[in-house]
């Protein structure tokens, strides 16, 4: 029986499909539009849309496991309608299709952003409440609502578990992701300044491995935070500088000034036809809780995220291989890290 990956051509999906194929698992990828990430792979590709339940029924027919990765990620306050359609109604459709098709297990991907960050002086773990305030960013609210939809399915007899990664970075980032785009901006010297703050970064390959172990071992209803290491944008820029030889941006914008200017930068980027990276939503994420615990995943799944610098080196090497870097990496510097 096949394993289905929704969002199979996304960043996590592209790595997931490769990991499943490496294990010899018959794999079916649900693709909405862009297929670049899985071209040439021995995978059964099914066109579909999580907003269309009929397409899910066709994709899930005969499937044993569904990894639900398809989602819309937005750093804007103005896209609730799309986020609700994909991240909330889409999850409900996935749940219904799994129940209708007799899927043995659903592994639903949520996000650290679905969880309350406060209190900031206490580590975030799986017991932390989901966000429930209209003052939270639309993406955060949509992922929390998606989790609730999965739990409703569990109450109806669905065997499902939830995976919540932090800021995912790594190779096979074809589009690229928001985090991949920020990394490329640093490496290609297109980021004139930094902002005070940082993220908990996790390697996409570690997320894939952790999720596959959870599918094999976790009890119904279990949830796992798959985190890595909190690193400031300044330290990330310094590491990228060592690897590439590109000078580190000299100005670090105070958070207060960045928050004041974010609406203007967002409008400018949208008028210029660029995807905004520095928005009020992304700046809020930069101020999130720095301590995200993966203790549960480590104890129950043997989860162990790799060193951060290994992730960045491998990601930049992949970007170089695919022609996304404007200059070659300093390989001698990489070996000395």
Helices and strands in order:
Elements lengths: L1 E5 L4 H12 L4 E5 L12 E4 L5 H8 L2 E6 L11 H22 L3 E5 L28 H18 L4 E6 L1 E3 L8 H10 L5 E3 L2 E6 H14 L5 E4 L2 E4 H12 L6 E3 L1 H17 L8 H7 L8 H7 L6 H14 L9 H5 L2
Parallel strand pairs: 1-2, 1-4, 2-3, 4-5, 5-6, 6-10, 7-9, 8-12
Antiparallel strand pairs: 9-11
Helix pairs in contact: 1-6, 2-3, 3-4
Question: Care to give the gist of this entry?
Answer:
With 337 residues, the chain is α/β, with parallel strands linked by helices. It has helices at residues 11-22, 53-60, 80-101, 138-155, 178-187, 204-217, 233-244, 255-271, 280-286, 295-301, 308-321, 331-335, and strands at 2-6, 27-31, 44-47, 63-68, 105-109, 160-165, 167-169, 193-195, 198-203, 223-226, 229-232, 251-253.
Walk me through the structure.
With 337 residues, the chain is α/β, with parallel strands linked by helices. The protein folds into two domains: 2-175 and 200-230 and 290-305, 3-Layer(aba) Sandwich (Rossmann fold); 232-289 and 309-335, no CATH class. The protein has twelve helices and twelve strands. It has helices at 11-22, 53-60, 80-101, 138-155, 178-187, 204-217, 233-244, 255-271, 280-286, 295-301, 308-321, 331-335; strands at 2-6, 27-31, 44-47, 63-68, 105-109, 160-165, 167-169, 193-195, 198-203, 223-226, 229-232, 251-253. A seven-stranded parallel beta sheet has the order 3-2-1-4-5-6-10, sandwiched between helices. Strands 7-9-11 form a three-stranded mixed beta sheet. Strands 8-12 form a two-stranded parallel sheet. Helix 3 links the parallel strand 4 and strand 5. The longest helix is centred in the first third of the chain and has 22 residues, at 80-101. The radius of gyration is 19 Å and the shape is globular.
